[in-house]
């Protein structure tokens, strides 16, 4: 057989002619940098924490603090990869953490000194499991924190009993669980001493449930349903007890506010609506109460005189509550809502009267908090701002801190009880930062620099897999413990 012709061989190496190899090609534009997939971004790490807990493998959605043992912290979130990752949580103790000493000014210019200030690693005492989806709410019961409850996107409410041995070592034992709803949005412990170990929850189907945990009273049914309500027609987004634990206010995406007479105290005085369940029932059918896009936050003032609700578009409504003691006041339903009260003596207003309609902020109101000792209401918005209102002066805007969290959503605001005489406010946001404010300034001072007294960094922010999703600060505010969207819990010292 004859050998194949050379032109038929496709894989023969191609040789460059010697004359072509010596030719230079001019490039008038100069060298062009090549794109690279390995571009290195410079990241500045800043961590103010004195301790950290990093057992979570994914976002930390919920955090709770024991009411009498403030060093005992519970956190919960999702674990693992995929949308069906089971929920998981932990309990840990921050008491071993020693605060950092006050350092001289030279510390700030001494990098080696900064490296010596290492954060303390915390270890779990107990693992919260049994959920098939993310844990998004946790609470210790009042008044003594005898039980811990976890609530998940799987609709499960699970209760654990706390025991302290002779060596002051805490331990937890599973008590019972209930699953009546498709998904739980929030859990709130009842603050009443008369009705201890009681929690309320709101669900994605709009229902509201109240449970009491009593293993000793009924060992066969330790998680007892006290009440269940079904007036909301869409997801129940937030709930808050009155300070005396007699009333429960809940709001929904359907634009409704319901204030429930959980224990029958109002019914005994003839203060409930025709439904026999609520002392206030307002819906979007009342044009003065309409908030297009729904309601997402609620708080009751320390005197149980009025309730504040926040919703889409930066809307805040202030609604009067009836007195449960003294002279009886007939409730007002959505069809009977009165005009706004002229004064701010909300305690003297008829229950259900709309006292104020506030629109200082431009986007949804995610969080509300009343000062424990001053007539102040704080609101955190998706637009990144914090507004503070004077409840004694017709809810006039006292401050509007527009750049509170650099245009990232404000997740939580809460006044400090033990420091600052009720003037200090703590906030966290999706920028990954926790800040503390002194809100004694006037409305004219809107810059964050004029009122911020403390700032803590350590979480990844900028809205990309970061942000602070919640915090606890105890009764003194001396330590702040955070829940990070980056899967890390940090302990900061005031």
Describe the model.
The chain is mainly beta. Helices cover 3% and strands 39% of the residues. It contains three helices and 34 strands. It has helices at residues 18-21, 111-116, 265-268, and strands at 51-53, 60-65, 72-78, 87-93, 120-121, 124-128, 135-140, 147-152, 156-164, 170-179, 184-189, 198-203, 208-213, 223-229, 236-241, 247-252, 257-261, 278-282, 295-300, 306-311, 316-320, 332-333, 354-358, 365-370, 376-381, 386-390, 396-401, 410-415, 424-429, 434-438, 452-456, 468-472, 479-484, 489-493. The chain is globular.
Q: What fraction of the residues are assigned to beta strands by DSSP?
A: 35-45%
Count of alpha and pi helical runs: 3
Q: What are the segments in which pLDDT stays under 50 over at least 5 consecutive residues?
A: 1-16, 27-32, 34-44, 111-116, 333-349
Rounded mean pLDDT is 86
How many beta strands in the DSSP annotation? Answer: 34
Shape: globular
CATH class of the domain at 46-230: Mainly Beta
Structural class: mainly beta
Radius of gyration computed on alpha carbons: 28 Å
* Helicity range: under 10%
């Amino acid at each position: 057989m004859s050998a194949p012709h050379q032109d038929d061989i496709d894989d023969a190496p191609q040789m460059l002619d010697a004359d072509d190899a010596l030719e230079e090609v001019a490039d008038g534009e100069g060298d062009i940098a090549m794109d690279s997939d390995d571009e290195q971004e410079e990241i500045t790490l800043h961590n103010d924490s004195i301790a950290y807990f990093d057992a979570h493998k994914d976002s930390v959605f919920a955090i709770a603090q024991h009411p009498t043992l403030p060093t005992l912290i519970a956190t919960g979130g999702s674990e693992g990869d995929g949308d069906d990752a089971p929920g998981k949580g932990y309990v840990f103790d921050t008491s071993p953490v020693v605060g950092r000493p006050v350092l001289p000014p030279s510390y700030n210019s001494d990098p080696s000194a900064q490296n010596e200030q290492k954060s303390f690693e915390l270890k779990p005492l107990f693992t919260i499991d049994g959920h098939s989806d993310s844990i998004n709410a946790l609470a210790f019961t009042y008044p003594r924190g005898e039980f811990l409850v976890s609530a998940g996107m799987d609709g499960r409410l699970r209760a654990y009993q706390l025991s302290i041995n002779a060596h002051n070592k805490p331990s937890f034992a599973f008590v019972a669980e209930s699953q009546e709803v498709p998904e739980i949005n929030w859990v709130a412990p009842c603050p009443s001493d008369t009705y201890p170990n009681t929690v309320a929850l709101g669900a994605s189907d709009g229902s509201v449930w109240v449970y009491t945990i009593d293993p000793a009273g009924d060992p066969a049914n330790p998680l007892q349903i006290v009440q269940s309500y079904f007036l909301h027609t869409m997801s129940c987004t937030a709930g808050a007890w009155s300070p005396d634990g007699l009333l429960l206010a809940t709001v929904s995406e359907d634009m409704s506010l319901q204030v429930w007479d959980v224990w029958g105290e109002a019914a005994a005085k003839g203060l409930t609506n025709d439904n026999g369940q609520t002392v206030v029932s307002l819906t979007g059918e009342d044009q003065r109460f309409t908030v297009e896009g729904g309601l997402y936050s609620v708080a009751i003032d320390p005197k149980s005189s009025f309730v504040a609700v926040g919703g889409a578009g930066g809307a805040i409504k202030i609604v009067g509550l009836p007195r449960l003691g003294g002279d009886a006041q007939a409730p007002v339903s959505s069809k009977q809502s009165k005009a706004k009260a002229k004064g701010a003596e909300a305690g003297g207003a008829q229950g259900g009267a709309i006292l104020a309609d506030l629109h200082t902020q431009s986007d949804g109101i995610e969080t509300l908090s009343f000062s424990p000792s001053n007539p102040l209401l704080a609101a955190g918005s998706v637009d990144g701002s914090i507004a503070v209102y004077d409840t004694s002066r017709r809810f006039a805007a006292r401050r509007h801190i527009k750049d509170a969290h650099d245009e990232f959503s404000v997740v939580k605001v809460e006044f400090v009880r033990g420091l600052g005489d009720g003037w200090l406010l703590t906030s966290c946001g999706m920028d990954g930062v926790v800040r503390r404010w002194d809100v004694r300034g006037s409305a004219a001072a809107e810059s964050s620099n004029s009122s911020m007294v403390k700032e803590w960094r350590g979480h990844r922010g900028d809205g990309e897999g970061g942000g602070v999703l919640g915090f606890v600060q105890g009764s003194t505010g001396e330590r702040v413990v955070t829940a990070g969207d980056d899967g890390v819990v940090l302990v900061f010292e005031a």
